[in-house]
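Quick one:
INPUT:
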């Protein structure tokens, strides 16, 4: 996604890739809540958990730099619901909201 954005100047494709990854993470998370680890390995889930912050931060960055502030706000609100103690995300959300 970052190659599409930085090297190929294609923010739309980058956002599509990152949004798909974000949605896939949510699907896997919901499956684990319902079925446990019967459908995904613990190792695979840990990889997703490690990648998720990068997916979200890249998505927020691209939204902000392309003036899609409402979309950036939605991603940040979702992040803060998951991680309510993340003060950096809260500050970034305030910043994004002040841009409108």
């Amino acid at each position: 996604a970052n190659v599409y954005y930085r090297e190929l100047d294609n923010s739309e494709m980058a956002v599509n890739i990152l949004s798909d990854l974000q949605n896939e993470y949510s699907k896997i998370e919901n499956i684990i809540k319902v079925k446990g680890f019967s459908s995904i390995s613990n190792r695979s889930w840990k990889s997703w958990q490690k990648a998720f912050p990068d997916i979200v931060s890249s998505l927020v960055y691209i939204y902000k730099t392309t003036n899609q502030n409402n979309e950036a706000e939605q991603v940040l609100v979702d992040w803060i619901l998951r991680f309510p103690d993340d003060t950096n995300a809260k500050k970034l959300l305030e910043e994004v909201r002040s841009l409108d």
